[in-house]
Amino acid sequence: MTPPPPQPPPSGPNPAADSAADPRPGPGPLVVLFGATAGALGQDLGSDETDLILLVWQVVEPRSRQVGTLHKSLVRAEAAALSPQCREASGLSADSLARAEPLDKVLQQFSQLVSGDVALLGGGPYMLCTDGQLLLRQVLHPEASRKNLALPDTFSSFYDLRREFHVQHPSTRPARDLTVATMAQGICDLAGLRWRGGCRLNVSEYVHADLGLETDATEDDFGVWEVKTMVAVILHLLDGSSGQLFSKPEVVKQKYETGPCSKADVVDSETVVRARGLPWQSSDQDVARFFTGLNIARGGVALCLNAQGRRNGEALIRFVDSEQRDLALQRHKHHMGVRYIEVYKATGEEFVKIAGGTSLEVARFLSREDQVILRLRGLPFSAGPADVLGFLGPECPVTGGADGLLFVRHPDGRPTGDAFALFACEELAQAALRRHKGTLGKRYIELFRSTAAEVQQVLNRYASSPLLPTLTAPLLPIPFPLAAGTGRDCVRLRGLPYTATIEDILNFLGEAAADIRPHGVHMVLNQQGRPSGDAFIQMTSAERALAAAQRCHKKAMKERYVEVVPCSTEEMSHVLMGGTLGRSGMSPPPCKLPCLSPPTYATFQATPTLIPTETAALYPSSALLPAARVPAAPTPVAYYPGPATQLYMNYTAYYPSPPVSPTTVGYLTTPPAALASAPTSVLSQPGALVRMQGVPYTAGMKDLLSIFQAYQLAPDDYTSLMPVGDPPRTVLQAPKEWVCL
Q1: Nearest Cα to 291, choosing from 319, 259, 322?
Q2: Among candidate residues 216, 251, 286, the one where a domain is terminated
Q3: DSSP element (H, E) containing 200
Q4: Strand, coil or helix: what is 119?
Q5: Can you give the pTM of this predicted structure?
Q6: Biased composition, Pro residues: where in the chain (predicted)?
Q7: What is the span of the domain harbouring residue 542?
């Protein structure tokens, strides 16, 4: 129950007059504040996202050494359940909390009572003083944000008593490890009193005898002893103050400041965290609100984008110091709406990689401070600044007009359909967002909130990405012999850990690994290029495959059991080429052409390629390609497409068996239907054609040549690139094809 307002002091010395006449300098009035939640206490206060249930406070006038009335108020919590630790320490029950006032009412009473006490003790602006930073940063500010309450400005700055005590007594333990009890122990040691294992009586005696403070029967109530002890510590520190105490308050930033980051910036890894599980539509302001109470560095929120340039639900957050980062890690699995957010450590290099940039155009665009950034997506390629300004309208002007627009372009200057716009305030940005999915020409435009880091990411992505995927070096296309037939001389591994490597598989097979054919380990990746948990192993015989399956079936690998079942080469080929292998039999791969089944491929000899000596030493001489193109007898050989030309088949990585050699990739041979349009002189050379599927419509001759830049295509052979006739297509079919001679 809240005690009545303090009564005027009895006749005697006037506190205000004493304060004015007191030659001892000191800070203004201090409000000693203690709080508790329904969950964890002590060093874990606020880490479990539980509501505040108790506030205890008392005003101290440092200059006159006067104190006000001690107040204690219960707070109604939305979740009435109390943790065993809280129930034991506080002695409170759910019934007593149900009769308490809600947080907004308690904060109003707090402001009124504190103002009255401060006026009686001499007036002036007051400052909060707490035991550590958890109560304000981890409890009051986050809970007020969740409940959409506006905290008074007095909660935006405070003194940390632990730091002030450590300044006066630097020989003690670090400030973050101090507690009210350890500070009280230090006072008793200096006062010549014996500290009996945290007994409160000694502190009460010191408070009553030496400081002239009144004690009563409520001293043993939860929170009362803590506040009175903190008052004793403050008065003790003021007696020996050297003028440095209570001069630099802690500040809680109320607004997140946007700003650019350069690739040359050095970011301390002890100040960065990664937040995972964010709603895709969340902005940097939403992330800053999740971490409300903690001080985020300027431009310190970097939302991560996926390969398609859309947000992937992750963000990197940079704080002003390592202490704020440690407090942020305690918010692991706190909620943003109905979603819980995972918080992990990150590095400064990761933050600079996401948020940093080198473009002068972007730096000029982001040089304006306190601007709200919006992203426009789906603009017509012919749209210019005047078109965008007209689309937004005069009711939401862009800062600087055309200078406040940044169009995203390809390296060759072609527009991408994306742009960014700056707005001077939140109201103008909200007005612009109402134009979401409005029409410009014949296209509807999407508008989203954006960040400086997203601007950098989008520009960096388009500036560094080639027009078409290119090969960094010539690859040696070594075919993998997949003999046709139904003999079950292969085994299929299902349920592999996603982190499994070739070494893990060899260790898993044990003695059976000696029976693997050369280049006989095939790990299947999904269409995102990630491990699918499946692998195929080619054994030397069907008997060896059966023995390996019997020995290793449901054997554990990294806490997961793996199924090992025999299968045929044909079944393996279907799965590797995109088909499925279920209990009902095989389903063919979703290929456009019927000739893409591996057993029907023709054989060709690839162009001789210069390879490093150390790479060639890893292969037997029979695996190296001959110097001249000599037609060979047809052999059932499967050539698999590389990721650059893959559209909707399984991405497959091929790992050779020991001795380990570099990963190798083959190419699709040209279907017979495409050979009819090739010159006779070219057709006389087996394997001279390579068919490219999935080429964009905008690709030109130079773009296609850039893929084969490492193969030294002669200038007079440029005419050998010919388009293939494009029949009626379905949605799943390639948009355009070329035949490269």
Answers
A1: 319
A2: 251
A3: helix 200-210
A4: helix
A5: 0.57
A6: 1-13
A7: 490-577
